[in-house]
Amino acid sequence: MTERLAILKTYKLYIGGKFPRTESNRYYQVTSAKGKLLANASRGSRKDIRDAVVAARKAFSDWSGRSAFNRGQILYRAAEMLESHAQTFIDEIMAITGKTKKQAGDEVTASIDRLVWYAGWADKYMQLFSTVNPVATKYWNFTYPEPTGVVGIICPDEMPLLGMVSKVAPAVVSGNTCVVIASETNPLTPITFSEVIATSDFPGGVINIITGFKSELCGPLATHMDVNAIDYSGQDEKTISSLQEAAATNVKRVVIRRTPHGNDWLGDTSQSPYWIEPLVEMKTAWHPVGS
Amino acid sequence: MKKNSEAPHLEIVESRRLLFGDLWDYAPSPEKPVNLKKHYDLFIDGKFVPAKSGKTFSTINPATEESLAEVALADEADVDRAVKAARKAYQNVWSKMKPAERAKYIYRIARMIQEKARELCIIETMNGGKPIRESRDIDLPLVAAHFFFYAGWADKLDYAFAGRKARSIGVAGQIIPWNFPLLMAAWKIAPALATGNAVVLKPAETTPLTALHLAEIIQEADLPPGVVNIVTGDGGAGAAIVNHKDVDKIAFTGSTEVGKMIQKAIAGTKKKLTLELGGKAANIIFEDAPIDQAVEGIINGIYFNQGHVCCAGSRLLVQEGIVDVVTRKLWDRLRTLRVGNPLDKNTDIGAINSKMQLEKICSLVESGVDEGARMHQITCDLPERGFWFRPTFFTEVAQSHRIAQEEIFGPVLSMLTFRTPEEAIERANNTPYGLSAGVWTDKGSKIFKIASKLRAGVVWANTYNQFDPASPFGGYKESGFGREGGLHGLMPYVELI
């Protein structure tokens, strides 16, 4: 036999800049579009979610304190890393989803371009959303955005790479850190993407990725008292309703996006500074004017 | 006096202290009460109508416990009528009106509020218990200014959101608290109207009167019937608004507890939501602060409006080196506060809004004493009837004490101490709330550093409790979401397309 046996990758989670296995030691099998076993993906647990929230909270002070320029550089670096690994992603998406090379290629290039697009917003969205307020009394008064904190992101199942990039980039560009529940049907590409994140100078904990069953993971994320916002994309009304209800435990901000859907993810309507805006808090500061 | 015979020595001179308290007499100067109607009806579809059930409730003056008037008690059926009227007005009239015309209606309302300001501030004080000095100099000017500010936005929305057009939402259900009854009505109604929405507003149960007088102004201003509807009642009417199927947006100002219930109740619907909830703001005094100004800021921060303020500076954080001097100056200043008839122009602290609120304040103050904090409370005479609480502050407070954690919503301040700026930030942010904060220091760079680290929506630096219609207001964390005031205050009432 001269044929070499391929090395299979173990798909673990991505928490705090490291790649731990799920503490639950559970897995679920991911098969190719043709039914061939591709991998045993991590079936993350409530404890993994908690660990990820702890990592995200720990990373928040550093990340939100970085300069806008630095955050932009790091997002751009992620685009560079994704570009250089584009073929890996195209192959992986084709194998899992059965998409054509063209379709998978479109998703990967759109993901790269989207990272670049948001990288550019890092030092611009603040000027768009800030105001100096002409109050009637002798005060200097201005309002500017600050990151909301730890954001729980629930990715669409479709477009496992582009869907995630489109949600994560507008969240972290302003200084938020996040816990991401990846596509349930294709959890492999998101975990491969975490290798891009890990080599892009993102501090550990800024982006944490959990794979598994949304029915098990959404609840613990949406009720967690140290998560400040929940950002969902998808069309499952039952999940939407339960997320909205769970979010009330600590007055989380809730972003629900029923669109885009399908190939709309590829287009310009799937990126907007108004995707950054719901995940920032407006701070108003006053100071007397006088001598 | 010996001259030059002793070596010079440093002497610590206690600055002169002024004694106030009972030593200074004064002549009472009360405003004349306004003659109120005996009965007030709901304002639905441009008309004043009784509740369908015929039920009413009595609204009182908290300073005398005397009944002021009977007010219609709305229930689900009345809310339904109001929502239907609002929907009709929205579809047929208000959303179709030229924005410039919409603006003129709002300007007109603002002007009429100014014309009736004196009457309105007296009613506000009679019904809510706040000192006339505040309702006259703060509440009413801000109410009119808020309508003025948003009137001008009505025909300029195309310039408000870069790259997007703003579209109205529909029917907004608005539920407001009793601490600034008319001002909160203005904060809710003005931006909703400017953006082309119709309104169903429910004033707080204990303070329905000024909103109904505003309804009269709205009627006199010829605002198309149904654009603004005002339903008075208890929590039942509020719940009916929240749960009504044809309401598109809920805006609530009140307690975090009720805010969470509302957020839960509308889960699974497509209603938009903004919440302006409780707070436990830190007011941080550094050693390099202008101490006398800071003491004024502390007083204004917590004793303004009897402490019935969601953004009140209820946790005083004082740097260790100045604890003694701040405590002494605070105590001296506290004793000058005049508690009594809210209609008297000399009054600093009026009546507590309700018996229920007074009981809540008393029980939290009792917990402070029980848990070992040291209470400083002035000993002034109080009127025989009505709801009153003497201005109070606590020292030797631990972070774990209930008075350091829970919103008291009364004239009660808890003082904690810190050594370093880092510790101040850590303590200030150690709360589920995040509405506001204060910082006092003469060092500019420190202000910017501290202000940027405080997780709160409004930061007052070297000042406290300032408000303006152009200035966005709202919280981080469990203090709610959405902003009221300024350009940002338009966002909760529009859809961007």
- Count of β-strands of chain B: 20
The number of distinct β-strands of chain A equals 10
Radius of gyration of CA atoms of chain A, rounded to a whole number: 20 Å
> Order of strands across the biggest sheet of chain A?
7-6-5-8-9
Q: Helical residue percent of chain B?
A: 25-40%
Summarize the structure.
The complex is a heterodimer of chains A (291) and B (497). Chain A has 291 residues and is α/β, with parallel strands linked by helices.
Care to describe what's here?
The complex is a heterodimer of chains A (291) and B (497). Chain A is α/β, with parallel strands linked by helices and 291 residues long. Chain A has a single domain (40-288), classed as Aldehyde Dehydrogenase, Chain A, domain 1 (3-Layer(aba) Sandwich). Helices cover 41% and strands 19% of the residues of chain A. Chain A has helices spanning 46-65, 68-84, 86-97, 101-121, 125-129, 162-172, 188-198, 214-223, 237-247; strands spanning 27-31, 37-42, 131-132, 139-147, 150-154, 177-181, 207-210, 229-233, 253-257, 280-288. Chain A is globular, with a radius of gyration of 20 Å. Chain B has two domains: 39-277 and 476-496, Aldehyde Dehydrogenase, Chain A, domain 1; 282-461, Aldehyde Dehydrogenase, Chain A, domain 2, CATH 3.40.309.10. The N and C termini of chain B lie far apart (83 Å). Helices cover 36% and strands 17% of the residues of chain B. In chain B, the strands form five sheets. In chain B, strands 14-15-16-13-12-17-18 form a seven-stranded mixed sheet, sandwiched between helices. The relative contact order of chain B is 0.14. Chain B is α/β, with parallel strands linked by helices. Chain B contains 14 helices and 20 strands. Strand 10 (280-288) of chain A pairs parallel with strand 18 (458-461) of chain B, so a sheet runs across the interface.
